[in-house]
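Our preliminary data section would be incomplete without showing what the modeling component actually yields. Below, a chain of 573 amino acids is followed by its predicted structure, encoded as tokens that our downstream tools consume directly.
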Amino acid sequence: MSDKKDSRPCHHCKSKSASAPADTSRIHYEQFWLFRHCSSLQQRDRQAQRAGQLFSGLLAMNVVFLGSAFISSMIFNKVAITLADVWILLSILKVLCLFWIIYYLLGTSRQPHAVLYRDSHAGAIWIRGSVLLFGSCSILLNVFQIGYSTILVHCKSRVEIVFPSIGILFICTQAYFLWHHSKDCIQVQHNFTRCGLMLTIATNLLLWLLAVTNDTLHIEIESQLREVERRFAGKAPSPHPHCCNDTTLCTCPNMTICKVFQKGYILLYPFNTEYCLVCCSVLYVMWKNVGRRISHHHIPHTKPKFKLQGVVFGPLLGTSAVIVGACVFMMYQIQATSLVPSRQVFVIYYSYYIVLLPVMSAGAVIGTIIHALEKKELDTLKNPTRSLDVVLLMGAALGQIGMSYFSIVALVATDPRDLLNSLALSYSVLIIFQNITQNVFVIDGLHRRRITPPGKEEDTKEEQNGEAYSQRRVSVLELGQEIRKASLSYIHTYSNLSWKRRVLREISFFLVLCNIILWVMPTFGAHPIFENGMERSFYGYSTWFVIVNFGLPLGVFYRMHSVGGLLEVYVTA
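Predicted structure:
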């Protein structure tokens, strides 16, 4: 009878055999028309996604090359291509980006089923806060530029008033767009959205490139004026070929408001470069999320919150580093901006770094060792935000590492036995080591899975298994014994890991505060790597200007981005 029952071709038995692992090898799914249709749709979707990414990437590449050609021509041939021509090109790009952003806000995002998924990892609060902070500073920068150009309208072009006016509108609209829609995984108008995002990324990259080159010109003019003042004071001028340019044709008259505009413009200029880089990173994540479908198990049920629990030594040591660094920075600003910078202020500045950088490196190495001892599972889920964080950390670190290697070659080739040269040499070596160790610590921490506290894990297990317990009708006594056994085993494991987690939190918080002060000092004008004159005399005035002004903004961006990565490591520890 059993053989006959087994041989019956009943529908129930077919469904069982289809679900059993042993019989799945007998079923040829590729012959089923529905499977072929679904697989072809998936393949078409992937091909369309790759084609859209390729086309939008080519669009951005061509825009960046065109803008770079304009900016390079302005630098090397100021007669044919002027700064006004570059501003006109960037104004056109800004207007196009504004039209697309407004269309996205009023049209694309409001369509039915447009935003079915939102990436919880994208658009962290510190990223969006940075967009608002740097965007506000960039708006003030444009206001100062408008006021300064209005006062000097007799010797300046009207384009210098129109360009920052369009810039204010562009910054406000883009900041609103990124604050509210940075987490979107748009499901409609894929290709048009990708092209709009890539056009906006290319525009921000060109604005960053122009800001870097303009910052170079501002520092060069300031150095030239300092050389002129030294000549009037009877001092020997520096032997660079750019000391005799006519830079005083359009100077600020003796008015208080004009001086305020000029100083505010110079002070806020670095924030504009940071704003462009942060916007590029957020827009790139949005571009990667276009058409992305997020499954429910990828969405975290509980978001980690920032709490100052169990950390004592990290905040104390970090606060001490910030206070000492602020004092050193104020001393440096007072002494280094004078006509004859004191040699002692450079010694104090380098000594501060030489003391702080080894402590930061040691903390990062200890944190990396603890990560290895913890044996937590690696988070291997696809995460565009984390992938971009890793790329930005590695790429931005190249700025400081590259400048340090150039400094090492110059200092070793000249006179490494001199006190100031030896301090600068030690500073360059320690910068390289600190950047590498901190990158390893942060990247390793970003790929570690978060440990759920015992109470939350038990609550989650009870919620998930509540129906199973009710179906099995387990008695209250047996259920209590099972929970007690599971709790004792987890508490035993948790107690072994608790000291490691405390050390990780202490190290992360200490590194956060240290990176903040190391971000503040170069952002607000502490540039001893240029102002000490050693590398400048070795490589030449123009060459060292190019090296510093491409490496310095990347170094500032690296410190700011490291703060965000370390905060995430602290929260998820």
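Strands lie at 115-118, 184-186. The two ends are 62 Å apart (CA to CA). Preliminary results of this kind motivate Aim 1 of the renewal.
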